[in-house]
Amino acid sequence: MKQKWWQEIVMYQIYPRSFQDSNGDGIGDIPGIISRLDYLQKLGIGGIWLSPVYQSPNDDNGYDISDYESIMTEFGTMADMERLISEADKRGIKIIMDLVVNHTSDEHPWFVEARQSKNSKTHDYYVWRDEPNDIESIFSGSAWQFDETAGQYYLHLFSKKQPDLNWENEKLRQAIYDMMNFWIGKGISGFRMDVIDLISKLPDQKILGNGPHLHDYLKEMNQATFGGKDLMTVGETWGATPEIAKQYSNPANNELSMVFQFEHIALDEVLGQTKWDLRDLNVPELKQVLTKWQTELGNEGWNSLFWNNHDLPRIVSRWGNDMTYRVESAKMFAILLHLMKGTPYIYQGEEIGMTNKPISDVSEIDDIESINIYNERLAQGYSKEEIIRSINAKGRDNARTPIQWSADDNAGFTSGRSWLSVNPNYKVINVEEALKDKNSIFYTYQKLIQLRKDNPLIIWGDYELLDTADNIFAYTRSYQGEKWLVVANFSEEENEFEGVFRELITHNYPDKPQKVLRPYEAFVAKMGDDENE
Ligand code: NOJ
């Protein structure tokens, strides 16, 4: 595989609404992001995945786009966006835009026109049927909505205000490619592609993901837009297996650089049910899944590595301990992931160990997905307590509370009234504190990012899982005669690990690791030439 810049960097995801407000309206914005670029440079990241900043009525916080070529008023102007691209570039940071083209907003001019009549110019840009079938929306209820004016049902796999685009229409595809080229012309470095595995579908046969033309469309898109331009692309693909991931990311196929797979993310839901149906994580299962992804792509594909994003609960609350062992467990997750093969993604606030924010009543929820599941499950007879328990565990607002910059009012996020309440733990957990404390989670991330820059072994080395106690996750990376050991006690119990190593590289406890690993203890070490080979 020829080496690419996106294989060597660590990415950082910004959810602009919650990152930094600069004008006191309670909503994060682009000038706010610019003001924090020095902080991100200090962390050491090489690229930002920017969640959508386009014009949107915000039914789904920007994932419902009404104009792809203008900036959301609350976030700033196109001039601000251009400034962000150039200011980031000055600091060696690339900007990756979110590309949301499975659907638009119902307020996008294409849809406004499409619903006027069956004969309108853009009617066929969307998916219409005279009769609905029983496909369900990912955001609850039927995926079909009757439109009075058009006299037909349109498909919406997400909210009613997110009608699905019909990728079979060639003109639509061309319009999307033109829009992508508009952004490439602005100097961005690539795209994160929202639910890209849903774009080719056969709703009558209930085939929604991995449809028949998916890979043809991506090859066509590649040729018409980013192909040959040294940009990076990452597809959000909930249905990917390693085989499918290779199809997308094998350079010979000219599709995408990499995809986000979600197999590990589903390990704490009841098999065959939804994310709201909770079960405990089984660590051996996690080891098996992540190891499969580490080993099976080989040289025919590339991994992306993540625990968090704007749709997922905070990892330290989810699978760690966000009270007694918050610092230890947050560092353990960082060490375990950042020594793996692939491009790591940090989600804003992860680098200071931000936690979930539990609620006790539906009135505290902002997110459409959680509100809908609340109402749906209430109607199905679930108790309020049970639904709130699921929402506290998996609801998307957990990841969307404002970034905790300092112990000032509203955590330094805004001088106004924040659109979503700040997590009350901001007085203790915030960036200012983290920067002052040389043992903070922030500096563990900074060190891991630097290690990746200095050691090709982390980028290219072979991965091998070690046979250990169930709750110990240990593996080696080997490259050009060198071998590193990564060990993580994925539990708050003590666990034994017997390993010999030569030089400790990083560790989340202050002293040397012994045979008995303490709660969430994790370390990276160089192995001797002749030991455990
Ligand atoms: C996936 C995005 O990550 C999520 O936030 C959004 O709601 C859906 N796609 C629909 O765009």
Describe the 3D structure:
This is Glucan 1,6-alpha-glucosidase. The protein has 17 helices and 20 strands. The chain has 533 residues and is α/β, with parallel strands linked by helices. It folds into three domains: 375 residues, Glycosidases (TIM Barrel, Alpha-Beta Barrel); 47 residues, Oligo-1,6-glucosidase, Domain 2 (Oligo-1,6-glucosidase, domain 2, Alpha-Beta Complex); 68 residues, Golgi alpha-mannosidase II (Immunoglobulin-like), CATH 2.60.40. The mean pLDDT is 97. 1-deoxynojirimycin binds next to loops.
Describe the structure concisely for a colleague.
This protein is an alpha/beta fold and 533 residues long. The chain has helices at 5-8, 30-35, 37-43, 78-90, 109-114, 170-185, 214-224, 242-249, 283-296, 315-318, 326-338, 368-379, 384-394, 397-400, 431-436, 441-454, 456-460; strands at residues 11-14, 47-50, 54-55, 67-71, 94-99, 128-129, 144-147, 152-155, 190-193, 232-236, 258-260, 304-305, 343-347, 462-465, 472-479, 482-489, 495-496, 503-507, 516-517, 522-526.
How much helicity do the residues have? 25-40%
Sheet having the most strands: 8 strands, parallel
* Percentage of residues in strands: 15-25%
By CATH, the superfamily of the largest domain comes out as Glycosidases
CA distance, first residue to last residue:
26 Å
Number of domains: 3
The CATH C-level name of the largest domain is Alpha Beta
